Amino acid sequence: MSARRTRRFLTFALLVSAACAFGCAGPRIDLQAWRAEQTVTAPAHDAGALEAELQRVDGLRAERELAAARQLALALVAEHPADPAALTAASRAESDGVFLFAEDDRRSRDHAAASALDYARSAEERGADSAGARAQLAWALGTSTHLQPMFSRAGHARRTVEAAQAALAEDPDQAVALATLALVNLRLETLPWIAKVMAWGAPDASLTAAEDFARRAVARVPSRENRQILAKVLLARERRDEARAELGAALAAPAAHPRDSLLEPALRRLLESLE
Fold first, then answer.
1. Where exactly are the structural domains of the chain?
2. Sign of the CA dihedral with 264 first, then 59, 101, and 227 last
3. Which residues of the chain carry a pLDDT beneath 70?
């Protein structure tokens, strides 16, 4: 082996070792223990009227009562573990749970994200194929990439994009799918250099695409969450004034979407960092 090839090999070996040091295997997830911990006394509901109770879950989310919505959704999926609509609702509830737990409670947030993905996959296996269900699967995939082994993350990103595109094929204005694609493009384009080296086979990405998807998501659903995503894309594109304006608009509007209230502190911190 030539000296040049030897140096390349040693450099590659060091990169692999460094990447693994940053978490090749991902955090340890125990869904069985997590769901046992999260089991609480089920809220009063009509056990025989699943469709009506799922509508109640949606109503609670619309009123930004995410903790109550999550509690009811998890109770319903425990009673109907093979129902695709109940599984999708449980997945969305666990995605809400990521926001309900404190930012420094990584264990709870990671388990909620992993649980959301598990429920979404089970829903897909049982025939959930609406635009909303596909979009929730895409979101759950996207928010659990960091839980995957390092060498599986590129494939996981491709699966995320495929699920989001499938949702958009059903509904071109599906806001959750648009937001997911914005985040995938943003994350792939802002990976640390070691992660970029290791991201073989990741889908094509660009900040231009991230901005386009984020703007379409905001146009469809002008939530604080979607505006936050757009602001982060604008920051990555070094357009601080536009990002500041987007954050200001998000905070100026009254909370009107499910996660709006929970996101206010994070938005204020991000805005303050730009002042």
1. 28-128
2. negative
3. 1-26, 39-42, 44, 46-48, 193-201
Q: Give one DSSP letter per residue of 121-163, joined into a string.
A: HHHHHTT--SHHHHHHHHHHHHTTGGGS-GGGHHHHHHHHHHH
Which residues are CB-neighbours of 55 under 8 A, at least 6 positions away? none
Local structure of 249: helix, strand or coil: helix
Q: Give tens-digit pLDDT for 80-116.
A: 999 999 999 999 999 999 999 999 999 999 999 999 9
HSE-up of residue 48 (Cα within 13 Å, Cβ side): 0
Sequence-separated (6 or more) residues with CB below 8 Å from residue 144: 113, 114, 116, 117, 156
- Name the pTM for this structure: 0.86
Encode 11-28: b = buried (16+ Cβ within 10 Å), e = exposed.
eeeeebeebeeeeeebee
Residue 96: CA count within 13 A, CB half-sphere: 27
Neighbours of 165 (CB within 10 A): 14
